[in-house]
Amino acid sequence: MARPKIERNICTSAPYECFKPNGVPLAKLEKIELLAEELEALRLADLESLSQLDAATRMGISRQTFGNIVKSARAKVAQSLVYGQALMFDRQ
After folding, report:
1. Within its chain, how far is the Cα of 71 from the centroid?
2. Which of 10, 19, 28, 33 could disulfide-pair with 87, CB 3.0 to 4.6 Å?
């Protein structure tokens, strides 16, 4: 049985539902879902330039969990940019 997921502290949400290549209808694109916790991890690590420990503390999770979340988020963003896929934001 898996451990229950610890609630994450998320301070912001995406201003839009998706980010996609210009000029291509959303219906024609493959979609990748970026979770709210992944967007928050990107914001803290890359926009605010916090260390993993400081960012994890802000989110109320362990440093290892933060590292896993930010790694997943960066992979999704890279995949979206390289393959021209739509990034769909989880709007909690």
Report:
1. 9
2. 19
Instruction: Please answer whether residues 39 and 14 qualify as being in contact, where contact means their C-beta atoms are separated by less than 8 angstroms.
Output: yes
β partners of residue 19: 87
The two structure tokens encoding residue 59: 């989110």
Residue with tokens 């994890």: 56
pTM of the entire structure? 0.88
pLDDT band per the 50, 70, 90 thresholds, residue 79: very high
Q: What percentage of residues in the chain have a pLDDT greater than 90? A: 79
How is domain 27-89 classified at the architecture level of CATH? Orthogonal Bundle (1.10)
Q: Is pLDDT above 90 for 83?
A: yes
Domain layout of the chain by residue ranges = 27-89
Place of tokens 């970026």: 34
